[in-house]
Predict the structure.
Amino acid sequence: MAKLKRLELTGFKSFGRRTIIEFSDGVTSIIGPNGGGKSCIVDAICFVLGRSSAKSLRAERFADLIFNGGKKEKPAKEAEVTIYLDNAGRELPINSREVRITRSIDISGNSVYRINGKRSSRAEILELLAEAKVYPDGHNIISQGDVTKIIEMSPIERRQIIDE
Ligand code: ATP
Ligand code: MG
């Protein structure tokens, strides 16, 4: 299993300044008040894994993912998220102990992807992650509201999710 080690957000949604979140062994919980940015962290994970719909990241357009400055600060010019995956077990076909995937977007909404600092295409990222059974739209990420959705689904729809 590819383990999430660390997440770095710069200018992404409510995270204007560079923010680093370390995930140590075991379960990590992130707590905070309503509107504190907890779901933004999940959005950041989906974003860096290559999710292609802005709406599913709770944004009208991709440019809305860039830190808007809030009430007091200057808006950012781009948003960047880096995810660090533990690759000691070589689940990902890259010969390094750690795999770093970066995605940034500019104000026009154009994305640039990198694998261990090297410019890559979205297709290359998806192919790499698929080796570890990680998918940007997969059920490995359960967002706020998904549990209610699953409970309220028809048995046939729920069966499809379980099959997937
Ligand atoms: P809840 O407990 O209600 O689920 P939460 O901790 O999940 O809250 P989020 O929904 O992640 O909170 O945070 C939303 C906050 O992020 C809002 O305050 C919103 O204004 C802010 N936000 C979203 N996009 C941007 C942006 N582009 N720039 C700055 N702030 C943003
Ligand atoms: Mg939330």
In short: The pocket of adenosine-5'-triphosphate (ligand 1) is lined by residues 13-14, 32, 34-40, 64, 66-68, 70, 144 (CB under 6 Å). The CA atoms of residues 101 and 118 lie 9 Å apart. The mean pLDDT is 94.
